[in-house]
Amino acid sequence: MTTPLAVRVLEGHARSYRHTWRGTTVSAIATPVLFLAAMGLGLGTLVDEGTGGGIDGISYLAWLAPGLLAVSAMQNGAGDGAFPVLAGMRWVRDYHAAIATPVRPADLMLGNLAWATIRLAALLTVFVVVAAAFGALPLGRGLLAVGPGLLVGVATCAVVSAFMASRKSDEALAGLFRFVIVPLFLFSGAFFPLDELPTAVQPLARINPVWHGVELSRAVALDIPTRMGWPVHVGALVLVLAAGIAWGIRSFTRSLRS
Amino acid sequence: MDPLTRNDQTLDGRPSADPGRSTAPLIEARGLVKRFGELTAVDGVDVEVAPGEAFGFLGPNGAGKSSIMRMIGAVSPPTAGHLRVLGMDPQTDGPALRARLGVVPQEDSLDQQLTVAENLAIYGRFFDLPRSVIRARIDELLEFVQLGDRADSKVDPLSGGMKRRLVIARALINEPSLVLLDEPTTGLDPQARHALWDRLYRLKQRGVTLILTTHYMDEAEQLCDRLVVMDHGRIIVEGAPRQLIADHASREVVELRFHPGGQDGAVEQLAGIGEHLEELPDRLLISADDADAAVRAVHDRGVEPATVMTRRSTLEDVFLRLTGRTLVD
Fold first, then answer.
1. Which of A232, B22, B158, B311 has the fewest beta carbons under 10 Å from its own?
2. Quick check: B77 contacting A, CB < 8 Å?
3. Extents of the domains making up chain B
């Protein structure tokens, strides 16, 4: 029986991870603690003491946690889409070694995405456990929110890896994070309801795919309805994921098979 | 079985009726062309390589050598022409073909964070080799490339020569029928180059077919049974290294170097000495069958170079004679 080619690539990622798991595990635990402490407790005290008394009657910490889950999935997905691809194509060039074997560019793209899925699932589970220990989330419903978070992260990884493979150099890396990832992060609805924005820019914020993930994650974790109904939110994210995969297979092949 | 002992297969991978005697070409290229936009990197190349041969593409940077290697290695589609490798079409049989090739790329492309053995293990899995087979081959191959005691050390601290040898071990993990080496010793110091040549020579003795590109004429002379000299994407001449030198260069060469300004005018004074006089920016080359007689003639004409060196002709001289340029700028 032969192992599918993308799975062989996935195995390689898993093997490399033996050398890097310590650092990523520490940051997986530290990041939610830092954000929940600063935003949830620090900023949250102000919000909860304000006229509204939290947001829609929910404490800011509880309102923030599921949104934070979705945006940290996006950030980690972007990292998993950018760095392994730049390393494989330009810094280490191990992708060039890999395509001299039966492995094809599409297998490298899908193998990286599969590995990112596994890593994100573990990372988001840690996030929920830490946030639950923090008193920010109920553990059971929080774990359900890993699903939408994962969808956000994997879709981001697919699009970012496709974009990175399409570039001729790594110059786009800084710009991508500064001008795309950071705005998506800030205007995702994770930190404040998008309704608070001026009416004119609200539609702009609503096309942010990450917002759909934040809505879903929050709805699942807090057992409240979503803004547009879950089929729309899930559909938007699946569409981004599918487009990212299609673009990725194309750009990986173009870049590696010139 | 010794993974380095090569075998008896016909072109399409079936056992040959007459093992070891198959002479059908492993590589067959006719009118091969590769264009990148406006640039024509490979401009109509015809090549045949027989099983067990060590075949070289010699030429300066930009001659199209690497593009040919990438087409043979089924990672770059030809723009035009006919190409068969191990009897397969690289464009339609890519994965099956690559499963039987060993590739040593120009850059090491090793994962520096991983150990020597892990780099080989991950690569072996790309060929879907069982883990037990990979383990056995890693031991054997690291022994072969003289890295047996470094299996568990990280790649990062290894010397350039050691990394290159590791890349060669990596290329052999699938017991390839054909090994492609793109500039295998570029950037290595002379000692490391000789160590590497020694390993490649052993591979060749074991019957592995080697295809290599190089812009070092000494490398080509050491390793290649037969080679083509390339320039601007075309083959300008083909043959065995000794034969090419015999056909296209004199037996010996005198190299004259002058003090600054001294070279001007010397060309006219020396006209007619030897078979051929070539002026390079930093020296004059006189091709002659008797170098000592040529040196005497230089002195007889009252020309006083700063240094005089005589040597045998090399492939470098063949290239210079055919193109008017040197191989390494």
1. B311
2. yes
3. 27-241, 250-312
